[in-house]
Amino acid sequence: MALPQRVTEFEPFIAPAVEPRIRRCTFRRLSRISAGSGSGYEVSCLYPDRRMPLPIGDLETGLHICAACAADHLFRPDED
Hints:
Helix content: 10-25%
Low-confidence stretches: none
Radius of gyration: 22 Å
Number of helices: 1
Strand content: 25-35%
């Protein structure tokens, strides 16, 4: 004979979001910077002639700008 048991409310499992990553580009340059107590990266784009770097900003800002790049031929061939 089965006895009734109390049912606990379960909250739905929310999987952690996959962090977006910067696609591997042949024209991007990352420079490590130290500022006060922390450190980070500065992103520059060397497209089209690799002579004058175009500063994009920090890594988070560079992620969005590089993801919006429409020049598909810039990204490395092993990148999906």
